[in-house]
Amino acid sequence: MSREAGVRTQRHSGGFKEFMRTMSGRDELSVLDLGTTSAGNISLLTGRGYGVRTEDLLAAASDPDLQITGEDGSKSVDVDRFLKENLVFRGQVFDAVFFWDIADYLPEPLVKPVIEKICCAMKPGGVLLAFFHTKDAGPNAPYSRYHIAGEDALDLQPVMVRNGNGELSLVKLQRVFNNRHIENLFRDYSSLKFFLARDNIREVLVVR
Fold it and tell me: Model-level pTM greater than 0.85?
């Protein structure tokens, strides 16, 4: 499926501001961005002297070759194959990870293994920024590309996919996590901090 992007809207983010503050004044940081690629983000981060690696995790998880059918006929995803083919860092470790709101859209079997694998690829004291939708966001809250727009501002650009019939549709939420679920997902990390937001999104800053 091909991808296209919609109109941008801007939101302020205390979690993003704190995330970037933890990196300020530090040289030669290694950053991992797991969202839909933003050329502007790469340019901004490399301009600060950071090494940037990008991997579109949701696109990888949408590969039809990963789909498997259980004995009961239910569809799922081949977790072992996904982990073998993706998030392969070959010893590289990261100071900071942009996880964005990917967990809300990944197939359920991948969420926990992916977060565990990212943990193993982060340096002690490294930081990860994640967003989670609340129930009030509604089931049609779209998956978005995040563009850095300022010290505490992000532009959200809904990502749409074009199916084999040429029709465009938004990528929709798979689930909504509550605070306890989020804490459990990151239980192997040393700490996490929640930030309040006004637009039905929980912002979480996680320290390895």
Answer: yes
